[in-house]
Amino acid sequence: MNLLKSFGLARKVKSAARRPLRPTSRPNLEYLEDRCCPSVTANVSSAGVLTVTSDAAADAVAITETASGKFRVVANGTTVTQTNTQNTAVKSLSVDLGGGNDTLNVRLTGATNLAGTLDSSGNVTTPGINIVGGDGNDRVVINAGSLGRDESLSFKADLGAGDDTFVLRSADVGRGATINGNVLGGAGDDTVRLNVDSLGRDAKLNVTSDLGAGDDRFVANVGEIGRDASLDLNVTAGDGDDVVRLNLDEAGKGANAALDVDLGAGKDVFRMNSEEGISKNVGDFTLNLTGDANDRAIFDIGKSQNNIDVNITGDIDVTGLSSAVSSRVQKQIDQLQKIIDQLQGQIDQLTNKGDKFDRVVSQLEKVIDRLQDRIDALQN
């Protein structure tokens, strides 16, 4: 028996009520949507203008025609837009590369008409492809593929400041088809290269290029110029030590050419190749060359000189029109020219395999330029 209870001394103890535990919380990170700004954007307007805009970073942009009026834009390996998911067909391209050392590859199937807007005289007022390069050392390549009968393509490339490169490649320009182009070089050592395999009957290739200041290079490689086809090239080299080369393989009956070259200031070199390739039955085939005593003009056109109207303004040092080089030197030139033709064939094959060989193609083109420089030295 409990003694405390017996004497009434026991204390009553109330059981304390258990308080509920307070909920505990731990800090967590809340995941938000990705709000980073892409370096390249693309959209299609209701008027059918595909606009591609790059920022000041160095970007690699590829615009590929997947079907007539449908394009895919890939920037730095990531697809930006696929226009075949939209209802509006693309009628023109507008590209602003911004600053940075950018690369742009436009690959066409030849099944589209990016003719742009023409005035009543047939002159281009708004090009089908408009490219602004901006500052930086940019490389722009248009692979036009093969243009079908009566199809049209027009382009304008304002490369801006920097050591820029522009390349136009076209396999065949079909009967009655037309390519109109305008290339502006700007400040820097720029390179403009035209590679066109053939101009079909009544086809036209019309390109104007102002290379701007710098030690620039303009090279036109044109294969067969078909019957009644027209080749119009207007080149202004500007200040600097420039090189202008026209390589014309063959011109058939009724073919026309208006070749206007102004070498500008500096120690410039002009070269024209067409070994017996200009038919005596050509139409109006004219070269107007302007320069000064600091410039050299080298012709390797053989009997073709009898079929071309050559007009030279200025005290240019001219070789190849009235006197032939020695047989030993000519043999070396022929060997180098054969290598150039082989390399050009490799370039054509690689171009048809896609943009992944573009760097190799660029290296081969530089090798060709060095071989051409060697030929120039032999003929000096």
Radius of gyration: 32 Å
Strand count, sense and barrel status of the largest sheet are: 12 strands, mixed
| Shape verdict | globular
User: Helicity, in percent?
Assistant: 10-25%
H/I helix tally: 3
- For the record, the count of structural domains works out to 2
Taking strands numbered 1, 2, ... along the chain, how are they ordered across the largest sheet?
A: 5-4-3-7-11-13-15-17-19-21-23-25
Query: Uncertain regions: pLDDT < 50 for 5+ in a row?
Result: 29-36
Order of helices and strands: HEEEEEEEEEEEEEEEEEEEEEEEEEHH
Distance between the termini: 135 Å
Number of strands: 25
Report the mean per-residue pLDDT as an integer: 86
Structural class: mainly beta
Question: What portion of the residues fall into strands of 2 or more residues?
Answer: 35-45%
